[in-house]
Amino acid sequence: MSQISNESFSEDDEEEEEIFIISKENANIRLDRVLHDHYKDLHSRTYFQYLFQNQCIQVNGKAVKKQFKPKVQDRVSITFLSLEPSDLIPENIPLKIIYEDKDILVLDKPRGMVVHPAPGNWTGTLVNAILYHVTGMQEAFKDEEKRPGIVHRLDKDTSGVIIAAKNLAAHKKLIHSFSERKVFKEYLGVCIGNPGRGIVNEPIGRDPKNRKQMCVAKTGGKEAITEFETLKTDGKFSLVRFVIKTGRTHQIRVHMQHRKTPLLGDTVYGDLKLNKKLGIEGQLLHASKLSLIHPSSLKPLTFTAAIPDDIEKMAHRILEKNN
């Protein structure tokens, strides 16, 4: 099947949206077939039926049914959703709680845990664990959220500080704080090589050659800003501090790949041979600090999460080579 020409891609912490233009090869074909063929490695036909039922697929700004046949140059937008809250299952999964009150829950997410249910990861997520821990939360968010309480995300293999709202009022205020860039987010990671110190200000969008990946986009990307500073290096590896001004998917990982100093262990944007040689699978990246204004008390708060063993081990290795 020929490639669908992309017009733009946008993504935030609450949903994913993709917009593309219908080409000649895909014109006058049922839209559900076009979508299934194009995304067959990512989503099932049943999943797209769910999106059609929830009016998440539009053509030229209007919701359409699955049998709709688009014309050349029609503008198709897809809003990707996760499970409905009524389908989410509370699970007794241990949580490492940094802070909790009646409005917010701050956690140290372990590496390897997915934040919210999605195709391929319907259970065992942070959301499943939160729903078990917070009594009444599922009911409170049933009419509002596809991802109850979630206001931002961390990649599966990124560990560290993540905050969730326990009620709708707190959720609304936290979402506003993140969207207005009033939340300070600091990360620690191990890079291959030495990125030094600086700022990457390059837009990020879906990789046209691989729909499962992101890339620095020449056109159609969203603004992405990453500050970085090497704290220690032995020349081959570096312990790096990151501060992100935006929150794009895989932002730090993509920006470091763009600088040719990818994160060690990254199975998508990194050096696969070196990862295998060192026995590291999953990027060594940790959300170490998060600062914001409390949604109710309006007091400034800062939360930190201790460096995990894998990153600490590499940091010691770097220090030993410098001594």
Structural account:
The chain is α+β, with helices and mostly antiparallel strands and 323 residues long. It folds into three domains: 5-80, Structural Genomics Hypothetical 15.5 Kd Protein In mrcA-pckA Intergenic Region, Chain A, CATH 3.10.290; 85-179, 2-Layer Sandwich (Pseudouridine synthase); 186-287 and 310-322, Pseudouridine synthase. The chain is 22% helix and 28% strand. It contains eight helices and 16 strands. The chain has helices spanning 31-38, 45-53, 126-133, 137-140, 168-179, 251-258, 272-278, 309-322; strands at 5-11, 16-21, 57-59, 62-63, 75-80, 97-100, 104-109, 159-165, 184-192, 197-201, 204-206, 214-216, 225-233, 237-244, 285-293, 300-304. The strands form three sheets. Strands 6, 7, 8, 9, 10, 13, 14, 15 and 16 form a nine-stranded mixed beta sheet that branches. It has a five-stranded antiparallel beta sheet with strand order 1-2-5-3-4, with no helix packed on it. The longest helix is centred in the C-terminal third of the chain and has 14 residues, at 309-322. The protein is globular and about 65 Å long. InterPro entries: PsdUridine_synth_cat_dom_sf, PsdUridine_synth_RluA-like_CS, PsdUridine_synth_RluC/D, PsdUridine_synth_RsuA/RluA, RluA_PseudoU_synthase, S4_RNA-bd_sf. Residues 103-258 form the Pseudouridine synthase RsuA/RluA-like domain. GO terms for molecular function: catalytic activity, acting on RNA; pseudouridine synthase activity; RNA binding. Its EC number is 5.4.99.-. Keywords: Isomerase, RNA-binding.
